[in-house]
Structures are given as structure tokens and as C-alpha cells.
Amino acid sequence: MAGDHKKTFVELRPSDRLDPCDAATVRLARVEYEAGELVVSAPRARGYPHGAGAVSLNIRLPSGSRVRAQARAADINAQGRLGECRISTDCGHVMLEETGPLRLAQVLGNTSVDHVGGDLEAHAECGDVQIQCADGSVHLSRTRGSVCIGEAKGDVYVYADSGDLSIGRAHGALEARASQGDMLVDETVKGPLVLENASGRLEIGVVPGTAVSLDLDSHVGTVYQSIELLDEPASADVPTGPPDDVVRVQARSILGDIVVRLTSRDP
């Protein structure tokens, strides 16, 4: 928990007070401070028949603190505002309220972050990602799992084998490629957008009054466009303008419909 603390407090206890393996893991744990960094480590307790032991770790630290966490199996839950974070887990869920730049590596587990105050880079094998707001660029690569971003203020790059993608508002460029999964961009502000999948629906919302350049193709599927987007360039809904002011959309699907529509939200 990050808050208005001048000092850092660490609490370690067995996950199960009656489990001797958990108690042994706590005894092996180390809390050390060196060169301005607080290091908490809990090595595996050996010689017990029921596993490696589990501990519950509670840390209270000043707001804006940098955090680096590495675990084989752990759920990580952080409240308050953190600074730069680097998190790596083999198995476990990650729930963060507010961070600075975030780098995340997971094998199995879901991720939920309210606000990333910087760039986000995440690599994972299996699990869902939910980001309410990202101030910087977003780079996500996943084997399986859905990606949901409420608002992306920077450029977004998403690569996945299988899983749906949903973005509420994309302020910058977007490149998304997947073998299977629906892709929804409810509102694009600037672009350019490149969406490609082998199977799944592609849907893009465009703010009324925005100049749009469309390059759409579906091998087995239907391409739908709002009537307003098909008007002549002199129309009120599709104004002329410099090339930089045109939102360029490229969408490709082998098996799936492509929808480009006007959004009801204001720019």
C-alpha cells in the first residue's frame, strides 16, 4: 500500500499459521536495506511434503516508490500511487491502482490496472489484461487472453494468438494483430489504425466531422460503413484537410465482418 508514509513498513506472516511449511518459509525470509533499496526475499522451504510454503507479505511505503517484484506463484495487489514498476510472475494475478511506467511479464494470470502514468510493456502467455487509462505508449503481447483498455493516450501495439481486444478511446496510432478474436475500437481520435486478424469481427468508431481514409478487406465476411463516411469529401461529415488530419484505417480479416461507424461521443 502506497500512501503518505515517511517510512516503509514490512509485515510477513504465514499464509496458514498452522502449516509448518509456511512457518518455515517466514523464518527463511529476509528483509534488507542497502543503497537506498529495500529488498524482501522469501526463498523456498525444502524438506516438506506439502509444497514450498506460502507467505502473506504486506508493505506500506511512500507514494511514488519504485517497485520490482519477482515471484514464481503470487497474487500482487497494490493500492495507492506507485512509481516505476517491474513485475514478473510465473503464476498469479496482478492488481494495481496507479503506477508510473510499468513493465510486466506473466506466464499465467490476469492483470488489472486503473492508471498507468507512463509507458506500459506487458508480455504474457495466458490471462486477461484490463487497463482503465494509459498515459504513454502500450506494447502488449499475449498468447491467450482478452485485452481491454478504457483510454489510451499514446500509441498502442497489441499482438495475440487468441483473445478479444477492446479500446474505449484511442488518441494515437494503433496496430493490433491476432490469429483469432474480435477487435473493437469504440472511438479513434488521430490514428493511423491497422487491425488484422484471421477470424473475428473488426469494429472502429470514428468521431463525426473527422476526415477518414479507409482500406478495408474481408475474404469471408461483410464490410459495413456508415452512410456518412461514404459521402463526398465536401460533405459536413467528411471534411477535407491536410494528410496529417486524416484518420487512416486499414482493416484486414480472413473470416469476419468489418464495421466502420460514427461514434456518438464528442471529440
Summarize this structure briefly:
The protein is mainly beta.
- Unreliable runs, pLDDT <50, ≥5 residues? 230-240
Count structural domains: 2
Radius of gyration using CA atoms only: 23 Å
- Helix count, DSSP H or I runs of 4 or more residues: 1
Determine the strand fraction and express it as a percent band: over 45%
Global mean pLDDT: 87
Q: How would you characterize this protein structure?
A:
- This protein is mainly beta and 267 residues long.
- It has two domains: 1-62, no CATH class; 64-262, no CATH class.
- The protein contains one helix and 25 strands.
- It has one helix spanning 20-28, and strands at residues 2-3, 9-14, 30-34, 37-41, 55-62, 67-73, 76-81, 85-91, 94-99, 102-108, 111-116, 120-126, 129-134, 138-144, 147-152, 156-162, 165-170, 174-180, 183-188, 193-199, 202-206, 212-220, 223-225, 247-255, 258-262.
- It has a ten-stranded parallel β-sheet with strand order 6-8-10-12-14-16-18-20-24-22, with no helix packed on it. A ten-stranded parallel β-sheet has the order 7-9-11-13-15-17-19-21-25-23, with no helix packed on it.
- A hairpin with a 2-residue loop joins β3 (30-34) and β4.
- The longest helix is centred in the first third of the chain and has 9 residues, at 20-28.
- The model is unreliable at 230-240 (pLDDT under 50).
